[in-house]
C-alpha cells in the first residue's frame, strides 16, 4: 500500500513507460508539484468521474515520476511525467494539503514493471492502418515514418493518449490487462469512431 498525491485530470492518460507533458497553473497543483519535488517526484495521475472542485474518481490511475521540470517565474510549471506503474485507489485520505491524497495498491499491477512484450504482426498492422484512416478522415497531419519506427508499446500508448475518445473509453484503455488487450481495444475504437457508429454520442461498453 502506498500514499499518493494525485492530480485528477480528465482525458490525460499515463501508461507505464509512457511520457505525459503537463502545464501546471492552478495553485493547488503548483503546491502538488512543489511537494513532489521536495519528496520523491511522484504524482498519481487519475481521471475524475465528473466535474467540479472535488469530483469522484475512477479507481485506477498511474504513478508518474517527474523526469523533467521547468519552474516559470510566475509560479507555473512545465513538466514531463514518466509512467511507472498503475495503481488502484483504496481510499481517499483526509488531509490539510490543497491537493488530494489517497492510499493505493500497486501490487496488483506488478506486471507493469516487466517487459510489455510485442504484438502479433497482423495486430500491429491493423492499428497502423486504422490510425491512418482515422487521422486522414479528420484531416490530422501525422509523420507516419516516425510512427512506423515506434515500438509496439509506444505506438499503442501514444494512440490511446492522443485519440479524442471520451473519458470512460480512455479509462477502459488504461484498465486493459496488458499490451495485446489494449492494442485490440485501440484498433476497435479507431474503427468504431471512424465509421461513425457513435453519432448519438454513446459510449462503448
TrEMBL record:
Pfam families: LON_substr_bdg. PROSITE patterns: LON_N. It comes from the Bacteria. Residues 4-194 form the Lon N-terminal domain. SMART domains: LON. Transmembrane segments: none annotated. This is LON peptidase substrate-binding domain-containing protein.
